[in-house]
Design a protein that fits this description.
Radius of gyration: 15 Å
Structural class: alpha/beta
Order of helices and strands: EHEEEEEHHEHEHEEEH
Number of strands: 11
Largest sheet: 7 strands, mixed
Strand content: 25-35%
Shape: globular
């Protein structure tokens, strides 16, 4: 049976930041499950940059079914974790079931990939202190408040934690995450 990777997300996650790792990791030979607060059809969004706006815009994106709820997740069944961005992390960081899942992955030093606003989740469980990370640039103060050293670059790898700024950094993010996976959690 192939190794399994968990993606944790919810409504208003950035479409590309869920679908790209989902497809790329399956292409690599991993089974990938998507977990959310409940089993339902999730509604993702598209964040884009348009002239005249001081920040990104948000439009409706893809829909996709969650494979399981956070309460159903057994972290021991997975070799790695992916945390997409978008607006979902803003409210997911308060979910006690998700906090247990995140803590289990970090306690076991399993590979974790986070992107964009995803680091709000890892900051919420105090796992960034003393680590090097990147995130969506507007989160620099949040990362510093969490005790992390923020680097405004495509991808930062700190041990088994691989972070990226946003979907334009996907190639670098997944390339570095797959290196970590091959070393720590190969497909077979």
């Amino acid at each position: 049976m192939p190794a399994k990777i968990l993606i944790v997300t919810g409504d208003a996650a950035e479409s590309l930041e869920v679908m790209y790792p989902y497809q790329r990791l399956r292409e690599e030979g991993y089974d990938v499950d998507i977990a959310a607060p409940s089993r339902k059809t999730l509604r993702f969004v598209v964040h884009d940059f348009e002239p005249g706006y001081d920040t990104y815009t948000e439009k409706p994106g893809y829909t996709w079914p969650a494979d399981l709820s956070f309460a159903e997740v057994d972290p021991g069944a997975y070799v790695a974790l992916v945390i997409p961005g978008g607006r979902a992390p803003e409210y997911l960081r308060n979910d006690p079931e998700l906090r247990k899942i995140l803590k289990a992955f970090f306690d076991a030093d399993k590979p974790v990939a986070q992107i964009c606003h995803g680091p709000l989740l890892t900051a919420a469980i105090d796992t960034l202190r003393g680590r090097r990370v990147t995130a969506y640039p507007a989160l620099e103060p949040d990362m510093q408040a969490a005790g992390a050293s923020f680097q405004d670059t495509e991808t930062v790898t700190d041990g088994t934690l691989v972070s990226a700024r946003a979907w334009p950094d996907h190639p670098s993010w997944m390339r570095e995450f797959i290196k970590v996976l091959r070393a720590k959690a190969p497909v077979n």
